[in-house]
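Regression test attached.
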Amino acid sequence: MSHDNSSPSFFQHHFHDVEQQYETSKFGMWAFILTEVLTFAGLFVAYIVYRSWYPDMFVGVHKLLDVNKGLLNTVVLITSSLTMALAIWAIQKNLKKLSIFMLTATFVFALAFLGVKYQEYHHKYEVGQLPGKYYSYMGPEVVEVIKDQEKIDYYTSSNNVYFDAETNRLYKTMNNPHIFFSIYFVMTGLHGLHVAIGMGLIAWLIYSTARGNIHQKYYTPMEMIGIFWHLVDLIWIYLFPLFYLIG
Amino acid sequence: MIENEKQNYLTHPKGIMSWLLTLDHKRIGLMYLVSGILFFFMGGLLALGMRLELAAPGNDFISNEQYNNIYTLHGAIMIFLFIIPAIPGALGNILLPLMVGAKDVAFPRLNLASFYIYSFGALFALYTIINGGVDTGWTFYTPYSTQSSSNVVPMTLGIFIIGFSSILTGLNFIATVHKMRIPGLTWYKLPLFVWALYGTSLVQITATPVLAITMVLLMLERFLGIGIFDPALGGDPVLYQHFFWFYSHPAVYIMILPAFGIISEIIPVHSRKKIWGYKFIAYSTLSIAFIGFLVWGHHMFTSGQSVFSQIVFSFITYFVGIPTGVKIFSWILTMYKGQVSFTPPMIYALSFLFLFTIGGLTGIFLGAVALDIHLHDTYFVVAHFHYVMQGGTIVAFLGGLHHWWPKSFGTMYNQTIANICAFGVFLGFNGTFFPQFLLGLRGMPRRYATYSDQFVELHSYSTFWSGILGFSIFFAIVNLFWSFVKKNKVDPGSNPWGGMSLEWTHTSSPPHPHNFETDPVFEHGPYDYDKVIVEKTYKK
């Protein structure tokens, strides 16, 4: 067991060389990503099952979600993926300060995402659009709006959403709207948890990079957390259309 | 050699902290082994409690409610705390890096973390036991599990946590097999135990996340009433069964694949013959892992599936029999014209062949829709999965322990006692579970604390032999650990069975803390008995 004194500090001695260590970390990370995909896959199956059971209800209830906030969050999260990738590019080019700046930007975007999410959750809590037995929302207080002289739309001030006449009729006869919110809260909640964990990891990355533990020759943790962050982003890219843009 | 004797992983470094914070895969394996065996004994005592109650009809010792708790805990402990973690966690951890010539697994810290996550999850299971148990059966079927007032949440939380340990171990093993092999040790030169662990790990990382999310949904259902599994709120309790079995059927292969790997090692070594059909065995492992994901519906033939899905699931289930049969025939052909020696590991391996074949074939019976509708939830099912889980996995586990004991711990047990216990396990097992096939065929339902008089004879017979089985397993394990107390050390360079894989030819017994004193060089395949002569050496 030759302990080579010249080997770099980040090298772990059960590996043969630095390259093997890097390759192994990367392989392990992709295997972990697979487990993440399968975790969410279970929930996507639940979504598919209940959407096929209650197609009209899903279409009707999804209008209670605020598309603008969802879109804003999508933009925020995609931008954060860009800044994450730029942070890795910067450290590869040995631009330490730029890398830290980009990581901080990623952190701020993540925080913004959770902030918007909090607003959405808070509003749903206020009006009782909650999962399962806690659901108490009895439909919007609608105001009829006449457009183009004939077509009647319904407008709800509490929700800032327009309904067309048919949707309003659907809404009144909808069954089990709480199931939609059960799935919505579980899926976006688990995703939000991942965002929060990602923020913790990014904070650690900022600290380690500033301390000089992560540098041009050794940026494996940043790359791995980057992969994780892109996964979090990718899951949201599926969640957004499946909840906000159906029907 | 003298310096080598001083430096082995069991004695170096010293101190309790060097164990609690160890990153050495062999020490972590030993810790898994000890905790696994403790849970095995706990689950075993619960089983004997059930058999005692069933020795005669009526509620002789325990009430129906207590019986519900006991069978639930027996199943949950045996599956989630012993069988699933124990073989990969104990034997896999100790042997995998040695077999691929690595100094450790790919991620040693993650490995230690897995052990602590497992222990943390086990605490919830222990809390469940102390706090009055759980009565839903180990499958936690909704809607009962969302209504039962017993400790469903602590137990499912424990299983959820242990699931993470399982995922992390699987991930670690996969990375180790892919990236940590020494030069020259190509995929087809790997010992088949490594292939088996690889297949197991693949199933662990792909199936366990689905169990985790199912347990989360079950807990949310109880805490928040989210209604996904609750028909009163528009949900579907059968969806729970789909989720549960999507994990738990592949989990059956998490339990049996390592056992296949152990048998693939024991049989060629103790027959001193090249394994027959290496590639067939290796690929059958992967195909079992794959097909295992497509057959979960055969657990739900009576849950209101469409006839079409019943037929499809039944049809795919039959395919599992093909790779399994390939393995059984390959093992038998390996022994053909070999120098078979009836050592304790080999007796366990031969028992395995006999018992697992019965277990596997009765699985095909149950995979047939028409028969299953008759046999569903009867003792026939109980007998079937015990033939697979105990007659297969646990017998192979005991065989593996006896096979690698001198290698892993540098001490040799009393082989005569080990042989007697191995026979005791074989006879006791058949005596206990064969009558249960007959009980099931005659309509005895599972999960009942009592029964009508017509079943007395077979039940009391089963109970009698379960005592023999319990004693045999207990003394087999005591006999192993007794070798520590007696300090019956083997020579560090010894190779008592004449094994050819790296752990036998290139490491001392017990191994050096860094596994190999010099970087191992690959010289011959693990089963090249036709090319190289390896001496059996024991206490020179």
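Expected vs. actual: identical. The first helix of chain B runs from residue 2 to 6.
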